[in-house]
């Protein structure tokens, strides 16, 4: 009993491989710093990739995707015969127009509409048939225009003056909705507009002069 009462508590000796507490804390801080450094590097790389992607898309938009205005030039006009009508004796004029597509992508359209005005009076309509204009290419478009005789002769006195002068001033307007295919995958809706003032010779129907204003609009 005396030996048990006089016994002293024993202490476990530390392992020679055990690290001091301050060394453990230093290791934890170093690991945290490495993780933060890796996270910063990943964030910087991601930001750089996003910036590069943004610059690439901007350059792509300014070159390939930016819609440039087409150009239209009327080549010829000729009367091909009377148009079938029960109400009034109309006649048909065949128009040939050259269209230039300055864009890098092709322009495809199913149909379009065109109108004709003589000194501010609506005198005719036409349907533009389906076609495809290649990128940075040209296409000749044929339009069968139905001229409304009753409307064309409303101002008979002025019409006689223009016929005697051998020149008919006309205004033509066309609206052609279609699609452009970017890389053959992305299809965007585009509407091409053309407004032309044309002077047609009479009776030879030659194009004496013309001034056209064309523009295209991207529909998002």
TrEMBL record:
InterPro entries: LEA_2, NDR1-like. It is a single-pass membrane protein. GO terms for cellular component: membrane. The chain crosses the membrane at residues 39-65. It comes from the Eukaryota. Residues 1-25 are annotated as: Disordered. The keyword Transmembrane applies. The keyword Transmembrane helix applies. Residues 99-188 form the Late embryogenesis abundant protein LEA-2 subgroup domain. Keywords: Membrane, Transmembrane, Transmembrane helix. Gene3D superfamilies: 2.60.40.1820. It is found in: Membrane. GO terms for biological process: defense response to other organism. This is Late embryogenesis abundant protein LEA-2 subgroup domain-containing protein. The gene is LOC123401761.
